[in-house]
Amino acid sequence: MNLVARVVGILALGLTVIPAALFAAGKLGEEPMKTAMIVGVVLWFAAAPLWLKGGE
Amino acid sequence: MADTTSAAASGANPSNEYEREPVPEHARKGPSSFWGMYAGEHTAGTEFMLGPLFIAWGASARDVILGLLLGNILAVLTWRYLTAPIATDVRLTLYAKLEKICGRQLVSLYNVANGVLFCFLAGAMVTVSATAVGVPFPSVRMPTFSDTMPTGVTWCVIVVILGLVQTVVAIRGYGFVARIGHLAAPWMFLVFVACGLTTLPKLQSLDLNAIWTGVPLDGGRPIGFLGIMLFAWLCNAAMHLGMSDMSIFRYARRPSAGWAASAGMFLGHYIAWICASLLFALERQLHGDAASNAPGPMVFSAVGWAGLVCVVIAGWTTANPTIYRAGLAFQGVMPSMSRTTGTLIAGLVATVAGLFPAFAMKLLDFVGIYGTVLAPVGAIIVVDHYFARRLGLTPNWAERTGSGFNLAPLLAWVVPVGVFFYIYKVHGVFASYMTVPVWLACGLLYVVFSKTLIRHPGASA
Predict the structure, then answer these.
(1) What confidence score (pLDDT) does residue B174 get?
(2) Where are the domains of chain A?
(3) Are A20 and B183 a contacting pair at CB < 8 A?
(4) Into how many domains does chain B fold?
(5) Which of A39, B124, B256, B313 is least buried, going by the fewest C-beta atoms within 10 A?
(6) pLDDT digits over B40-61, tens only?
(7) B13 assigned to some structural domain
(8) B242, B245, B251, B252 alpha-carbon torsion, rounded to 10°
(9) Across the interface, do A48 and B191 touch by the CB < 8 Å criterion?
(10) Is the pLDDT of residue B403 over 80?
């Protein structure tokens, strides 16, 4: 479970910053970039509680 | 900065662990515990406000890039070579150490100052969150740099609802929000980076001098290299020079854990500030003098709904523990008052402060005042720790004499801070310029007043 959470968490972080980098490089449109980022939010807050258990 | 979490962790420390005794060997932690904590705590809601303020205050590209670099290096060195060594020697919270030197009554006074400043900082963060919540409501007029008063009825309604919700959560204990803040930290930093990246292709020019023009919005004097450098160094003066982070580093095995502060400084106070600055640079290029630095609309324009979520969480996770700890600080002054009442008072003050954009828009000033008022007590601890015996003073005077009140540190603190407020109000000097002089004056006056005003056990009458 923790491995899945870690993979999803890394994917979420990637969806947060890679689309922005692609947009900056002119390789991705603004709307797909924003959509990918909000997907990143959902995935991050689903995975992070399982991945980063030391948050209490 | 300016996240008060680390400061607050010491101020009126909510933890029940080793509050009045040195941290024992088995409870100490390795350096990795501190790196993540500092990275998270210094990438917060305040960063959205501070980056744009550098442009508003007329910082040039050189001021920002080199001034922030040097200032952040000085901040890290201060944590590493001043705060961490004393913390790992003494292994007490700031409050426990101050009580040994000054007595309980003076610690209560420090609590009041801390609590009031916390409330205003929390208010600024309620304002930040409100700019994000207000984005879907076209009737909300977002505040600009020139706004000091509430911008309308809808604005007030949003701020009051946010402030009350945050107060209720703080009353119930801030564990949930602290956990959200911990979980959000890595993602939040990347949202800052994404904001910077998405702004780059939209800027009319990537010439750094077109981004940081060096021309203040109000036509006054630019902040300059020295101002930026001192601000970066001293925006957390209460935590390092002021020894508030003794409460953090008392858990460190070695003083070298102080290097962990570099994670917060270079991720939060360098990269995040520059990214937030870029957001406002774009606003300026698009809207000229009508540009608003309200974080919500700027971030929404840059990265959409993910940015709004980030602004709300950043503001909330900064404001909430601050309200909680301000409540504890007030409770510390009046122990008969319940924590609920103390937190409610703090939350209401923060909510009222949040109605007025002045606190958020003047954050550079406020943070400078915050550091200059609270940091000087750290000089008293430095004198007590390193120089007291050599100078013939009694270390931990209040504890040794059984006194609840030590006049020497009170005067040593109040006199230079009083002079600071006079110079600040009358001559309009930038607050961060005076933090170090006030700190030094406090340390020197503590020696003078300790020699002349109080009796030392064992000394001849």
Answers:
(1) 63
(2) 2-51
(3) no
(4) 1
(5) B256
(6) 778 888 888 889 989 988 999 9
(7) yes
(8) -80
(9) no
(10) yes
Q: Does some domain include residue B141? A: yes
At B304, which CATH number? 1.10.4160.10
Could A20 and B309 be called an inter-chain contact, meaning their C-beta atoms sit closer than 8 Å? no
Which chain A residues contact residue B309 at CB under 8 A? 38, 41
**Residue pLDDT, tens place only, B298-355:** 999 999 999 999 998 888 877 887 888 788 778 777 878 888 888 899 999 999 999 9
CA–CA distance, B31 with B423 (Å, rounded to integer): 41
Query: B166 pLDDT exceeds 90?
Result: no
Gap from A42 CA to chain B (nearest CA, Å): 9
Nearest to A23 among B183, B191, B198 (CB): B198
Query: For the range B415-420, what are the long-range contacts, defined as Cβ-Cβ under 8 Å and sequence gap of 24 or more?
Result: B415/B441, B415/B445, B416/B376, B416/B441, B416/B442, B416/B445, B417/B372, B417/B373, B417/B376, B417/B442, B420/B372, B420/B373
Domain membership flag for residue B380: no
Summarised one tens digit per residue, pLDDT across range B253-270 is 999 999 999 999 999 999
Q: Is residue B33 part of a domain?
A: yes
Nearest CA in chain A to B308: A38
DSSP state of B174: S
Confidence of residue B1 (pLDDT cuts 50, 70, 90): low
